[in-house]
Amino acid sequence: MRRLIGGWVALMVALFGAAGVAQAAGKLGVTDAWIREAPPGASMLAGYATLTNTGDAPITLLTVQSDVFRMASLHETVIDNGISKMRELHRIELAPGASVSLKPGGKHLMLMQPRQEVHAGDKVEMLFLLVDGTRLETYFDVVAASASADD
């Protein structure tokens, strides 16, 4: 009888474990990540990249962090009555297969109060935090002020 119960329990554990593997999951991909080098003493920089949901479930990006900056957040440039303004975004939602471009004049990362100067050729570690608790570490290339992401 014990063997029968033990076998039944093992079968149930295996089935439930397999069901967990089959669940849909979103996955954030970050490509073409860059920060433009700023003049010495600059208190704000911006980060740009392409974010893609490479999974099969929606994902929600809540914020970004970096040890190189005291504060980092998601922002968007909007035109209000002919005046360009920035506003903070509290999340970016991505459907499966969807992408969003973080680019100059649009959505971007606002990187404030650098703890150190960043120079062309540096790589800055960034941490993306998703609503489901996922944390994705990635690196942004620092490019010369005269360069663009396509150079």
Question: How are the SSEs placed, and which strands pair?
Answer:
Blueprint: H1 2-22, E1 28-36, E2 44-53, E3 59-65, E4 69-80, E5 83-89, E6 92-94, E7 99-102, E8 107-114, E9 123-130, E10 135-143
Parallel strand pairs: 1-10
Antiparallel strand pairs: 1-2, 2-7, 2-8, 3-6, 3-9, 4-5, 4-8, 9-10
| Global morphology | globular
- CATH-wise, what's the superfamily? PCu(A)C copper chaperone
Rounded average pLDDT: 86
* CATH level-1 class: Mainly Beta
Radius of gyration: 21 Å
Low-confidence stretches: 11-23
How far apart the termini lie comes to: 71 Å
- Counting DSSP E segments of at least 2 residues, the number of strands comes to 10
Please summarize the sheet with the most strands: 10 strands, mixed
Number of discrete domains: 1
From the helix content, strand content and strand pairing, which structural class follows?
Answer: mainly beta
Helix content: 10-25%
User: What portion of residues belong to β-strands?
Assistant: over 45%
The quaternary state of the protein chains shown equals single chain
> What is the count of DSSP helices, taking H or I runs of 4+ residues?
1
CATH topology, by name, is Immunoglobulin-like
Level-2 CATH architecture: Sandwich
The H-and-E topology, N to C, reads as HEEEEEEEEEE
Structural features:
151 residues; mainly beta; Immunoglobulin-like; ten-stranded mixed beta sheet; 10 strands; globular
